[in-house]
Structure formats: structure tokens, C-alpha cells
Specification:
The protein is an alpha+beta fold. About 20% of the residues lie in helices and about 35% in strands. The protein is globular. About 25% of the residues are buried. The C terminus is likely disordered.
Length: about 170
């Protein structure tokens, strides 16, 4: 199965300048996915990282891998419009080579664990067949809207603090 940018945006909430995958070229639900990211000099982060020597920040390469993993998770959510896949862990991250304008990242994600609300995946980003970055990533599915705290629970400790010690 392949997904274009519009289909990716139907699964992920990310938008410019933070949507970091352009196409899904291979996808086996719950098992593996291969995504592409075309890196251009027009990326906003290149203005400051680094002037005259542009390198894609490693944390954004990791984020691109996490977004590819989120596609795997979100594609299985029947109520995905009310959910987010949030990044909860990075293990054994290694950066092997810089990613620069003109590169195409091939992001390969293999599922290690897939549960209804939690995923763990092994991810690799390659440029021209050479490893640029690798990591084990975990994510969790959470509701988009935060539940509001009960007003009484928030006000009570503040009121006691303002009153000072009892005499």
C-alpha cells in the first residue's frame, strides 16, 4: 500500500513546517512502513542550522521517523480524529552521517510491539542506501482534548496557602 501527502495528512495532525514525511512507499499494517522525506534548502531550520553549512537537525530526523511510526499506529485507530500519537521514548539513537539539502531520507520502520494504545518500533533513516540515523521509538495514543481539572480541586490548595497557618 502507498500513501500520498494528502492521505498522510488525513492520519497525522502535523502541518508545515513540522510535517516531515512526504510519501509512504511501502506499508504493511501493524508490521512495517517505508516513508520518504525530500530534504530541500527551503526547510526553515536551515536558516540557523548552520548558515553556510546546512545540516538537518538530528532531532528532526528522529521526529520524521516518529511521524512514520505514528502513521502505523493511527491507521489502525477507528476514532483517530479524536486521538494523537505522542512520542514517549527514544532508545539507542545513533547518528551516522549528516542529512543535507538535496538528500532524500528513506525512513524504514519495523513494529516491535503493537497494542491498541501503545507502540514500540525500530526505525532507520537512510540516504542513498547508507544509514544516517537509527533508534528504537515508543509512542502512545492519547485523546486530543485535555480533560479540564475540577475547579474546586485547583482552588482549595491555593486558598489554604493564602490563609497561612492556623492559629
Amino acid at each position: 500500500m502507498m500513501l500520498n501527502i494528502q492521505e498522510i495528512m488525513d492520519l497525522l495532525p502535523h502541518r508545515y513546517p513540522f510535517l516531515l514525511i512526504d510519501r509512504i512507499v511501502e506499508f504493511e499494517p501493524r508490521v512495517r512502513l517505508v516513508a520518504l522525506k525530500n530534504v530541500t534548502i527551503n526547510e526553515p531550520f536551515f536558516q540557523g542550522h548552520f548558515p553556510g553549512h546546512p545540516i538537518m537537525p538530528g532531532v528532526l530526523v528522529i521526529e520524521a521517523m516518529a511521524q512514520a511510526g505514528a502513521v502505523i499506529m493511527m491507521s489502525e485507530m477507528p476514532d483517530r480524529e479524536t486521538k494523537l500519537a505522542v512520542f514517549t521514548g527514544i532508545e539507542r539513537a545513533k547518528f551516522r552521517r549528516p542529512v543535507t539539502p538535496g538528500d532524500q531520507l528513506r525512513i524504514e520502520v519495523e513494529v516491535l510491539q503493537f497494542k491498541s494504545r501503545v507502540g514500540r518500533m525500530e526505525a532507520r533513516a537512510l540516504v542513498e542506501g547508507k544509514l544516517a540515523c537509527q533508534a528504537t521509538l515508543t509512542c502512545q495514543i492519547v485523546p486530543k482534548a485535555r480533560e479540564a481539572a475540577a475547579p474546586a480541586a485547583v482552588e482549595a490548595p491555593v486558598a489554604a496557602t493564602e490563609a497561612g497557618p492556623a492559629e
